[in-house]
Amino acid sequence: MNFCESKLRVRYAETDQMGVVYHANYYIWFEVGRSDYLRMFGMTYKDMEAQGIIMPVIENHCRYKQSAMYDDMLTVKTSIKELSPAKISFLYTLIRDADGVILAEGETVHAFISSSKRPISIKKVNPALYELFLRAKE
Amino acid sequence: MNFCESKLRVRYAETDQMGVVYHANYYIWFEVGRSDYLRMFGMTYKDMEAQGIIMPVIENHCRYKQSAMYDDMLTVKTSIKELSPAKISFLYTLIRDADGVILAEGETVHAFISSSKRPISIKKVNPALYELFLRAKE
Amino acid sequence: MNFCESKLRVRYAETDQMGVVYHANYYIWFEVGRSDYLRMFGMTYKDMEAQGIIMPVIENHCRYKQSAMYDDMLTVKTSIKELSPAKISFLYTLIRDADGVILAEGETVHAFISSSKRPISIKKVNPALYELFLRAKE
Amino acid sequence: MNFCESKLRVRYAETDQMGVVYHANYYIWFEVGRSDYLRMFGMTYKDMEAQGIIMPVIENHCRYKQSAMYDDMLTVKTSIKELSPAKISFLYTLIRDADGVILAEGETVHAFISSSKRPISIKKVNPALYELFLRAKE
Question: Interface pTM (ipTM) of the complex?
Answer without folding.
Answer: 0.96
